[in-house]
User: Fold this.
Amino acid sequence: MQSTVKRPVSLSKRLAQWGEVIGALAIIFFVMFPLVWMLLGAFKNQIDIYSTKLLFEPTLDNFKAIFANPVLLGSNIWVSTLVSFLTVAITIPLGAAAAYVLSRHRFKGRNTLFLLILITQFVPAVVVAIPFFNLFRAAGLIDTPIALIIVYLSFTLPYAIWLLRGFFDALPVEVEEASYIDGCNEFQTLRYVTVPLVLPGILVAAVFSFISAWNEFFFALILTRSDSLTLPVAILGISGPRGPMWEQLSAAGMIVMVPILVMSFFIRKYFVEGITVGAVK
Assistant:
């Protein structure tokens, strides 16, 4: 038997490996430090919030305070949830249908239409803010969830079409042709074959749409006043005689982050599955 001799790792390779580890730890630190600091601040009292100590007596009073007078974030959470879910409920069916047509059907101007859809993603929000405001003011939709949903669809729908078209293009046509041979029509093929195979992309598009609507601040600040204030805008009003209530702001920030962290955790595997979606029988 031939014995295998391990060659010593050179000093340059070891330094490179340690450099990669240190760089990765530095990135993790700079990304996680604000989140951890906000998490700690959410459980601090008014005295501890201005200190840098890590050991303190935690309290839940901040979470109780943001749901009581005068903050009352409960209604704002409901508005944000309603707007986000309705945005997803409209974006996914329309986006999937448009992406399927652009991927599977050949018609004149198809690529031009797809390019125009992508161009809308490069338009700065501040450019269309005034036209949107004038339009909704004339229609009487200022300070309503409907106005927010329409605006959010203007950037979630193009993204969903772009993303899902890539998933449909990656799916071999032979899979759908096999279902046609088995007697399925186009609608049945789309429902029972195509959609289940591109489900990872649909889930990713849905979560992106939800997060975009949940976190959106600029249009919500312009188009809402009191009745339809979303959670990110309502957080601006958390202040008191001593100025910003940092402990309550931290607690409200944690509430904003929880749905995003949960969804990001559950969809992380679908990004990998989307690469190998579909198979030719």
The radius of gyration is 25 Å. The first strand starts at residue 239 and ends at 240. Residues 275-281 have pLDDT under 50 and may be disordered. Residues 11-42 form the longest helix (32 residues).
